[in-house]
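Incident log, structure service

09:12 report received: a user says their structure output differs between two submissions of the same chain.
09:20 pulled the input from the user's history:
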Amino acid sequence: MTSTKEFFNLADLIGSVGIAASIGLSERLAASDPLLARLVSSILTVESRHDAFFRHVQGEVPNPAPFDTGINDIWAYNLALSFIVPGSCPIEVPVPILPVLTVEPAALPRLAVKPGAMPPHVNSTHGTALQAFTWDPAQMPFTAEEGKQLLAGWVNQVNVPVYTPLKITANGTGTTSVPSGLSGIAFAVVTTQQYDNVNDLALGTMAGPAVVPIS
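09:34 re-ran on a clean worker, output below:
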């Protein structure tokens, strides 16, 4: 990072992903090891205070939504990969590696968002904000899904995933609208099927996830 603003922006991104991953982990541990689930819950309260501070110093609302968003371990690992030095871990984690997905407001210049940084906030109150999705076509040639409508799958708070059509505008680029009613931090992926929960959507993810700050 080269400035205080960039530092807090990155800290906000890491904190948001950490909270989302901890929620998902706590849910899984509640069934297998309730004592560990309690420990993870105690970490969540600390992470939330960190996140509120990072938002406050950037002039944002410390608590933008009544619920934080939980994510699957597949998504959490893939989001963490951008901060991991390749080959630095001798153990191969048995989690699928997904093509990277970048999301930013379609009206902004293509280089407006640095890799690994929190993208600008969008307003989804009326569902009119247009988002640009980019991916590496060499990693995921969507022509393999010819005949199927590409979708952007959105996960936010404790709600069922919602989907919007993804329009291909160029090789490795597409646009879609942001669903109305989202708040706080949302996660977006590319898929071809509509799943009714985040775990199934993670298994059907073709690219992503990307972190999308809504408010």
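09:41 both user submissions now match this output. Likely a transient worker issue. Closing.
09:42 reviewer note: The two ends are 23 Å apart (CA to CA). Helices lie at 4-32, 34-57, 73-80, 198-203.
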